[in-house]
Design brief:
This protein is α/β, with parallel strands linked by helices. The chain folds into two domains: about 180 residues, Isopropylmalate Dehydrogenase; about 140 residues, Isopropylmalate Dehydrogenase (3-Layer(aba) Sandwich). Helix content is about 40%, strand content about 20%. Strands 2-1-3-12-11-4-5-10-8-9 form a ten-stranded mixed β-sheet, sandwiched between helices. Strand 11 and strand 12 form a beta hairpin. Helix 1 packs across helix 9, helix 1 runs parallel beside helix 11 and helix 5 runs parallel beside helix 6. The longest helix has 20 residues. The chain binds nicotinamide-adenine-dinucleotide, 3-isopropylmalic acid (IPM) and manganese (II) ion (MN). Manganese (II) ion binds next to helix 8.
Length: about 350
Amino acid sequence: MRIAIIPGDGIGKEVTAEAVKVLKAIDEKFGRASDLERLPWGADHFLETGVTMPPGGYAMLRDEFDAVFIGALGDPRVPDNRHARDILLGTRFELDLYVNYRPIKLLDERLCPLKGRGPGDVNFVVFRENTEGLYVSVGGRFKAGTEDEVAIQEEINTWKGVHRIIRHAFEFARSHGLTKVCMADKSNAMTQGHALWQRVFKEVGADFPGITTTHYYIDALAMYMVLDPAQFEVIVTNNLFGDIITDLGATFQGGLGMAASGNIHPGRTSMFEPVHGSAPKFAGKNIANPIGAILSAALMLETLGARDEAAAIDAAVAKAVRENQVTADVGGRLGTREAGDFIAGVIRS
Ligand code: NAD
Ligand code: IPM
Ligand code: MN
């Protein structure tokens, strides 16, 4: 199994080191030999070479690797974030990774900021459309920098794009024995683009008679997530709304440091990364929580068909949380490296 490892920037480098440590422990435990190839792409590389993503980079990821793991991208020295756009968003778009899979699963009641809620209340998945919406960079600025400036950023919704993510959400529900799919949009205000979401959700839902469909406008969804998260099993929404609600969902799990994601095109080379960013203020201090990255590595193995290996990571993380062998953001006393050592140690034992 050949995996491209792109640690990226800031705490991305630190949490990726821990995810790699855990993948190596899995290899030892299960007698496997993964080929983990580190690629230096990120802010340092861009500032040194002027290259964000080398020519042929996307094709290389797609054709030469089974999966891609990314730490995080974003650095204050690159204010227009162009390297993140090329490396992170570019990989999502160019590899056509249309499913952004973000599980919201609380491991211990202690970590949840919602009053009286425990693991039984917070266990759902968000499917974020990942290749269109407001992220396509279609638009432009006219008379930039003047008081007459006009800035246009178009949201693109295609039937193909909307259909495939909604269908994926229903198929996931059916294959996981779940019975509820909720779609969130803003069709009351965005009466053109989101009418398409309404139409497709109804059409696809009709093909899944055993599954109850609900719809909330995205503002109400944010409220219901806080008031009654237990009602959700599968949420499907567009690119920007999915970005926002998964940071909200991460707080239910104990914070951004706990949240994992997969950027997936079923059957093709896919990319896995923690939900959080490069947290520049935390960088280099050995304080970032590596669990989001480690659980993303588990999602990667699961998607590649290594179910037992993924389950071993999940179990080791659950033990670390249970025994409070974690970083300070989730109430522990360990550093990033020590938290990774604990989880890798549990896997080896
Ligand atoms: P961020 O996720 O980097 O950090 C926000 C806050 O969340 C941090 O200050 C910290 O309190 C907490 N946090 C995040 N990760 C944590 C961890 N592993 N352990 C403990 N606490 C953690 O978001 P931001 O500050 O908005 O963005 C910083 C940079 O990262 C920006 O350049 C942004 O564009 C980029 N970013 C990249 C990605 C990505 O690569 N996927 C995702 C989000 C943001
Ligand atoms: C995420 C991040 C990215 C996004 C940024 C860094 C462009 O916030 O992966 O959630 O908005 O998709
Ligand atoms: Mn985000």
